[in-house]
Write a structure and sequence with these properties.
alpha+beta; Glutamine Phosphoribosylpyrophosphate, subunit 1, domain 1; five-stranded antiparallel sheet; 7 helices; globular
Length: 244
């Protein structure tokens, strides 16, 4: 075993490992990975995700394409996942980091409910998500959190550095500017959940038409007091026709 005075200069966040580490909450090389992300190093990815709030619930929608540089690496990816009995998260960014983030959030929400006998509020869940991103362990992910709690429906936009803002509607990903144009024109605070599904589908369709990293269909998550319902549609026009 190494003497204690040798361990005093070690810093787990810098990537130094001890005979006892890494411990839970330590993320080796987190600072280096953060610096690489800030410099834009690594393979570029893209997507489009949107979130809208209504009086009766939340609608989240994403395209279904995974990109790797200039290549389409998958045409059937689900980019919205249930992480809470009445909450879901869209993912944009690194697939590995996003999958790890979702698994961590599912475990934490289950643990919270088991310990306290009640569901985690959406504000607490958004804070937890922001803190995890701020730790440097999940570079680089930019999710949208949507859910319903005792205070009603919520949509949170969470940036890769952990900053959180609650919004009526929001977008993330490389197709954001195209999707946001539709939301700016068509979002209304009096939308029903059905209306919000139509607006979300139009926003994703607009991005798919112009953003090379978005395409191959749409996943839609509807979150209400009854729970989370995620559906998959390869044909966006067919979904729009069904909702009309």
């Amino acid at each position: 075993m190494r003497p204690t005075d040798d361990l005093g200069d070690l810093n787990p966040r810098r990537g130094d490992e001890t005979v006892f580490g890494p411990e839970l909450g330590e993320f080796p090389n987190a600072d280096q990975r953060a610096q690489s992300a800030e410099k834009g190093e690594g393979m570029k990815t893209g997507t489009t995700t949107v979130g809208l709030k209504t009086d009766d619930g939340v609608v989240l929608a994403t395209d279904m394409r995974a990109s790797l540089g200039r290549m389409v690496s998958s045409k059937d990816v689900q980019k919205v996942e249930q992480i809470h009995p009445r909450g879901a998260l869209t993912i944009a960014g690194s697939v590995s980091a996003a999958q790890n983030l979702i698994q961590t959030l599912k475990a934490e929400t289950n643990l919270y409910e088991a310990r306290r006998g009640k569901e985690m509020s959406m504000r607490a869940l958004s804070t937890l998500t922001g803190n995890l991103l701020r730790s440097g362990a999940f570079y680089i992910v930019q999710p949208i959190l949507g859910g319903v709690d005792e205070e009603g429906p919520h949509v949170f936009s969470i940036d890769p550095a952990g900053g959180m803002t609650e919004e009526e509607y929001t977008v993330t990903g490389s197709g954001s500017q195209y999707a946001l144009g539709v939301l700016e024109q068509e979002y209304d605070e009096d939308l029903t959940v059905g209306d919000a599904k139509t607006v979300a589908a139009r926003a994703i369709k607009s991005a798919v038409e112009r953003d090379l990293a978005s395409g191959n269909g749409i996943n839609v998550a509807v979150v209400t007091e009854e729970g989370v319902d995620i559906t998959r549609h390869k044909d966006i026009d067919e979904l729009l026709g069904a909702e009309a």
